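Handout, tutorial session.
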Amino acid sequence: MSNYLSHGGGNMKTLTMYLFAFLLLNCSSASTQVKTLVPGKEIESPMSEGARHTYQVALKSGQFVHVTVEQIGIDLVISVLDPNGEKIDEVDGPTGTQGTENVMIEAKTSGNYQLEIYPHKIEGDEEPLVKGKYKVQIEELLSASEYKERLETNRARRQTTIQWLKDNAVPLKGVEAEQGFEDMQPLKQIIGDARLVALGEATHGTREFFQLKHRMLEFLVTEMEFNIFAIEATMPEGFDVNEYVLTGKGDPEKALAGIYFWTWDTEEVLEMIRWMRRYNADPNHTKKVKFYGYDMTYGTRALKVLENYLNKVDRKVAAVLNENASLSLIKSPYKWDFADISKEEMSKTLQVIASTIKDLDANSGKYIAQTGEKDWKVARLHANILSQYIQSNIPSGSAIRDSSMAANIHWIMEHEGPDAKIVIWAHNGHVNTRKNWMGQFLREMYGKDMVVFGFAFNQGSFQAIWISFGSSRGLRPFHVKPLPEESLDATLGATGLPYAAFDLRRLPETGYVAEWFAKPRKTRYIGAVFNPQAASSYAEDVQVTELYDVLLFVDETTAARPNPGGTRSKPRILTSPKNLNFESSEPGVIPEGWSAHKYRLANFDFIVETSTELPQQGKKCVKISRKFGKHYGETYALLLQRLDATSYRGKRIKLRAAVRTELEGSGNDAYLWLKVNKRGRDTQSLLFKDNMKDRPIKTSEWRFFEITGEVSDEAQWIDFGIALTGEGSAWFDSFSLQIVEP
């Protein structure tokens, strides 16, 4: 530029022409980046991570346009900008990488409205780059007068619907149990002669949902002779809860913790279990209520029950199970990890289980003669659960899980006999009757003998695991405001009823109400996790009449209240290792600087404490112990530290510690372990792992053990610690974590 300015006016004229050409070229280039949408023309385009495509549609003030974006292999976000370039909406529904995003624009001013389309990516998420494509088109374009008429019709339709809901609701006076059933009497006609009542929930962490389910159970047991309660929880460990419910033996809080899922480890569910026990303890109640799980999310107990039975009736068949490498790992939840098992090994394991089931069937007469039919049925059930557990963890196994849960509920009904009537507790996502969900499989089995209650709420709080930046931030409460007024949840809220039931089967077949319910409406669909940065993605457009028979509604909710063992928090991230010789801690407590869930460990009878019992050096060490006897659940004890990996990136590290034990017998072992993680989800975050699962520690004298591993440049944090499986005691001391030469 300075060369041009140093010459005369002719060169200045040339410079002006160059600048004009440059600006014209860039304006032309910029304009090609914005494509115009017109009715009747679909545009298909590839999309990859990091790309951003812009479209525009010209609207006059008062006009309305509905644009659809069909996602094909990639999850997209659509930002909507007004003619001034201000963002007025962001669309990112729960459709994932397949499905349609719907963009609705009401033009407040005339001009070009823009849609910016780009891949969904949470800041800090380290998932691999993805590619896909999409199709975008104008689905509907209305003039100002047409849209005004549409709005007036919609308002009339919604007001008519709200009035119908008010007139046909079953108002409930509250959600808490043991306050009588006068307000619930109309539910008898709604439920009729059904033998299965399925109760959903719009979140896995809402106090009022759990309380209302308790109240529904109390009503159905007391007033309608239901005698079985079944929950979306591991089936084998569920029998421990049932023992307490029927006999009063055991600890209900520990038994509840022993079905593992934090969502149920709450004050509300524990109180319901205690109510079941109080009901059964009353001699006037001759028909007792039983507790079942019906899920297959854990395999250890199922395998142990099956092996124990086979060791009694046929040691040769039991030996075949013992010889399978994968099954030997499943016996120890500390050692087992699906990520470590190949498809071929998984297939062989399933064949072994299938062969075992054939042996159980072929030799049923002989086995039953030795143990009785009840024990044989229970053993065969656990063989099925073991197979279901493995199959449901194979990629694309979600439908297997739901079909298996339905099959297990069917087993319960057959096992309990023709007079059995069951209350089923699960998420809305499982009880609904859409294809490949549990509700659909049960509907095919039982037809009108099942009534499905979906749950909805207008606003309020719930607890969930906060998923953000590609990883978990622990369990905490969240609060959400009402959805837009045309949503299902907001329309139910507009009735002014704090608690109510609505029988969707009584909806009129024609008219405004039928038209309103014929269109998909947004309702919240929140499971065990939540990301407040993407809150809108937890509301789904659903055809509610195709999912449920009845809706139970709570206007405003609060978060479920976890029991002490049901809390979940993330370890504190340290900048450097702390208290590695345990001298900075008082005896009898968890050592300072280390993390362990005291109450959760106590539920499984583990004790982690600073000890003065013969330390390797100094005056203190750490001890993990568990007395011999009956325990709830199948788990292990951990003590850990989490370090910021920044100063270790690109280096090799060595974890070293002294260990001594008082451990005997199979499955009673001590371990050191070391992990290196990046931000991400599940196994995608793991960069290095060595938990010594193939070299358990049983030394009775102090000995040093070590683990060496690489810290990637991607690493975010380093976890290291100790573990105890089974029963007995182990002492650990003199830890070090050092950078070593390659």
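The second record follows below. Compare its token runs with those of the first.
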Amino acid sequence: MNASKFTFPACLLISACLGLSSCSKYLDNIDPATGETGFITTDPAISVVTATIGVAGGTVLVSKPGSPVDGLELSIQDSSFSKPQTVNISYAVVKSHEFGENFNAISPLITVELTDLYAGRPMDLKIPIKVPAGHLAMAFLYDSTSGELEGLPIAEITDNYILISSRHFSATSAGSLKSAITGEPNWNDRIIAGSVLESLTSGNLQISAGFDVGTDDWEFPNYGAYITPAGQCLGQSCLAIWYYNYCKKALGSAFHKFDTNLSTNRPDAYWFDNPKAYRFSAVIHRDIEDSKRLDGWKTLMERQMSNPGIIWKSVLVEMIIRNSPQLLFLRENATGVAHAVICYKVDLKEKKLYVADPNFPGDAGRAIPYTETSIGPYTSRSSASSTKDVVFDQVCYIQISNALDRKEMRLRWSEFENGTIGNDKFPKYKLFAGNTGGTEITDRMLVSNAEFKVVCKSEDCEASIIGTDKLQKIFIVNSDGGRIGTADDASHGIATCTLQPADNKIGIYVTGMRANGQEYYVDFKWFTINLGEVYLTITPDPLQAIADKPCSFIAEVKGTLPASYKLVWNFGDNTGDISSGTSLLVEHTFTKEGSYIITCTLYDNANSGLVARTTSKATIISSFVSELLDTKYLFVSLNADMQTDEGISLNPITIDMEYKHYNNQKIKWTGLEFFLDFKYELSGSSADPVVVTGALSGKVSADGKILESLAAFQRKELKSQTGGWREESVKLKIVPFSDHTGDATKYHMTGSEISTVVSDASITWKRQNPTSGEWETIEMRYLDYDNTSIIPTLWVDFYKY
């Protein structure tokens, strides 16, 4: 049998929106594996069993003497699925892999295909293995599209088998680009058992995932929220791991990343100054609990606690091979109180698992002790709002994709970016000035009374302050985090603060009352309130303009101007203060690209007193980048010698602009990043037209001369979803600009050097075999950039029209 061939390099998975972090590190000179991703070369797959399991559950046993999977057993619990499941199990013998010398494959690649993606309860899979002497074993989910590994929770292990427990055996949650867009199971995902030398874990070493407390955890404590009154440790921990793996490289570290206050005087004073991420954590926690994805994990915990070495060794092997922080569940057996933390470092000398605890953000000294016969206990609390210590005496290592659904995370991330995260979960509310019959508070509103009163009304909360019109408790802070007003029972729901002349930056912390009479976090918002007779704003705000070209600004005034006044402008580019006198219009030319803060101040000439002041933002770009950001359509084509295992040549990967012609869909620019999700029908084909679904996303450099990243995916199939289909995807990095012609900005390359910019490329095609007429699915397994008979070409073209 011929081995499958992968000649393109190990890749970093890029989802439809985000990059995958590769910040792992080893201490004390442990030689790391080749990275978080790689490819495995195998013989063709061999099917070993097809069976049907009813809703009452059952077992599928592989009985193939002499086969490497003889004795493999799948067990499904009663009521795990709502309908009978067709189970197909196959395997492929491993020939080679790209995961470095530390990784040793001790099983074939195993595919377990079911009708549905997720089981309602954990499924057990018993895999026959032979663990080499002096090795530690682990089972992984392997995504053959991206080359990504994800550890699977071990329930039991011997020298002859490994028993894993999971609700799914597909990498839809683990991260394939196809699955991220379509939400469909990716049955290219397989299971493999691997081992590492136990000697790698000996000595006075620390093994780290590169995740740093105070840098990569969230800065806010796990106080809980209205939708998570007991705490949101699971959502907070899962979101921190997910952000670290998929967002950090592109967006930076999580700690204080999304604070909304402009002042940096006391970032510790207001943990609540990150409402988007805090609400995101609560929503993820609520999503996991509502979906019941983790029901049944108490049994796995009890199995692992009967052999604590499983947890210790699982974390060790995961960090050596995969280099990623791990999710741990904790439980106090006597009370059933549960908690979730992130394991990011293993200290082999101290025998400790160091954890990031969402109850204690930034605390790098927290760790779970381990001995050969026990793991734990670990002392924390049920949430950060509790004052009572909880001694967690049970620990469980769990696969994060059992908690997070990839498609759901992508939708939630869009809500996070749009500022709407939690709107479907948290109670709605309104803030009014004075009373519920007053003016609804808006940013930059003008008021004339220094005594500023605020009330919060919610129709959705279970309870409210007694004797009021559904008012909720709130408090007001100034820009330094100091509390300056409180609405509670004593004040009958009215918060009062004193404003200073001109602009006042205030933050309002909103709570909602549950039926038990307790108030919980709902939201936090900053407002600029102007006290005075005159209120200034600058138009446009924000401004995006081109360097070395004049920009016009208008000072818009609400209220009555002084009899004699002047306006003074500062453009933040070291040109100093410029007076426009009584003119509300001013022009300025920025000579360098960059981001600037424009300040406009109104003075009363009678007493030289400050009347009002305001600011706006400007982003200045080059004319080249301006042209690029004006483009609306994107064409992608990759051509080279592309073949299957059987030597079938494949057409180039081409994602053209038919989405423009059939649905007039356009790429969207956010700063230097672009994205588009498209779907359209090819008209005129038949009564059963071809439907095309796909996505494009990426980023260009600040000067526009480098296409820093691009991820593109496309699927074509009949609307009836009968017959064949074709999927293709490509991921690129660091593609240089080549030409600008007419309305097109082009990034073209030719020849073997294309291999340096293609992170990943894939084609999967369901077709009728031209000889047998049978339907078959074929995949691109061979991509050769050196074949002179087919000159490799890469085209990425941005078009205006």
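Points raised in discussion: The first helix runs from residue 177 to 182.
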